[in-house]
UniProtKB/TrEMBL annotation:
It catalyses: 2-[(2R,5Z)-2-carboxy-4-methylthiazol-5(2H)-ylidene]ethyl phosphate + 4-amino-2-methyl-5-(diphosphooxymethyl)pyrimidine + 2 H(+) = thiamine phosphate + CO2 + diphosphate; 4-methyl-5-(2-phosphooxyethyl)-thiazole + 4-amino-2-methyl-5-(diphosphooxymethyl)pyrimidine + H(+) = thiamine phosphate + diphosphate; 2-(2-carboxy-4-methylthiazol-5-yl)ethyl phosphate + 4-amino-2-methyl-5-(diphosphooxymethyl)pyrimidine + 2 H(+) = thiamine phosphate + CO2 + diphosphate. Its EC number is 2.5.1.3. The keyword Metal-binding applies. Keywords: Magnesium, Metal-binding, Thiamine biosynthesis, Transferase. One of its GO terms (molecular function) is thiamine-phosphate diphosphorylase activity. SUPFAM superfamilies: Thiamin phosphate synthase. This is Thiamine-phosphate synthase. Belongs to the thiamine-phosphate synthase family. It comes from Roseibium hamelinense. It holds the Pfam family TMP-TENI. GO terms for cellular component: cytoplasm. Its cofactor is Mg(2+). The keyword Metal-binding applies. Pathway: Cofactor biosynthesis; thiamine diphosphate biosynthesis; thiamine phosphate from 4-amino-2-methyl-5-diphosphomethylpyrimidine and 4-methyl-5-(2-phosphoethyl)-thiazole: step 1/1.
Length: 205
C-alpha cells in the first residue's frame, strides 16, 4: 500500500482544520491526557474533517475509541502494544502503524504485519524526552532493506530542509511535529513540506 509521503502530526483537530485544505492527505492526531469526552470529540471531528478532504487519519494510542468511532488507521508504540488488542483492531478493519527503535522492536512490529513501520528519532527531537539516541540516516537505509515494500515512516527532528536526505536514504514517509507547529507561519511551512515531498502533484488517497 502506497502512503502519501508527508505525514504531519497534530494534537488538536483545529490543526487539521487549518492544514487539510492545503492538501495534506495523511495526518496523525496525537492527543495526550485529555478527558474522555474531549478526546472522543476531537477524534470524531478529525475523522469527519479527513473524510471531507479525502485524507487518511491516523489516531495515535486510542485504539478502543478508534474502533467505537469507526476510524480506519491507528498508530501504536511498543508500550501501547503491551495492552492493545491487535486482533480486535484488525477485526474492525483498522490499519496499524507501529513505532520501532531497535532490532527487537522491529521484529515484534513485523510479527504484527503492520501497514507501516515507523523508525525514530532520526535526529534529536525536542517534542518529548526519549531514551533513544538519534538513529541517523544509515539506520534509515538499514530499516528500509529490512522491511522491503512495507512503508517506512521516519520521525524525529525532521525539518523541510532535512527531508530530501531522509527520503533519499529510503524513507517512504516523513512525519513531523514541531517543524510545523513551532513555525511562525505553520500554513506556509506545510506548503513548503508539500512542495518538497512532491505531495502537491499527487491524487487523492
Ligand atoms: C509516526 C509515528 N511514529 C512514532 C510515534 C511514537 O509512538 P509512541 O512510541 O507510542 O509514542 P507516543 O507518540 O504515543 O508518545 C508516533 N506517535 N507516530
Ligand atoms: C512522537 C515521536 N515519536 C518518536 C519516535 O522516535 O518514536 S520521535 C517523536 C517526536 C517527533 O516530533 P518532532 O518532529 O517535533 O521531532
Ligand atoms: Mg503511543
Amino acid at each position: 500500500m502506497k502512503l502519501p509521503n508527508f505525514y504531519p502530526i497534530f494534537d488538536q483537530s483545529e490543526w487539521l482544520h487549518r492544514t487539510l485544505p492545503l492538501g495534506v492527505k495523511l495526518v496523525q492526531l496525537r492527543i495526550k491526557e485529555r478527558d474522555a469526552a474531549t478526546l472522543a470529540g476531537e477524534i470524531a471531528a478529525s475523522r469527519d474533517l479527513c473524510a471531507d478532504h479525502r485524507a487518511l487519519l491516523v489516531v495515535n494510542d486510542h485504539w478502543q475509541i478508534s474502533i467505537e468511532l469507526g476510524c480506519s488507521f491507528v498508530h501504536l508504540g511498543q508500550e501501547d502494544l503491551d495492552s492493545a488488542d491487535v486482533a480486535a483492531i484488525r477485526r474492525a478493519g483498522i490499519r496499524l502503524g507501529v513505532s520501532t527503535h531497535d532490532e527487537n522492536e522491529l521484529e515484534r512490529a513485523l510479527s504484527l504485519d503492520p501497514d507501516y513501520v515507523a523508525l525514530g528519532p532520526i535526529f534529536p527531537t525536542i517534542l518529548k524526552k526519549m531514551k533513544w539516541q538519534e538513529q541517523g540516516l544509515p539506520r534509515v537505509r538499514e530499516w528500509k532493506k529490512r522491511i522491503g515494500k512495507r512503508p517506512l515512516v521516519a520521525i524525529g527532528g525532521i525539518s523541510v530542509e532535512r527531508a530530501p536526505d531522509v527520503l533519499a536514504a529510503g524513507a517512504d514517509v516523513i512525519a513531523a511535529v514541531t517543524d510545523i507547529t513551532l513555525n511562525a507561519d505553520p500554513e506556509a511551512r506545510v506548503a513548503q513540506w508539500l512542495a518538497t515531498t512532491g505531495e502537491t502533484a499527487k491524487a487523492d488517497v
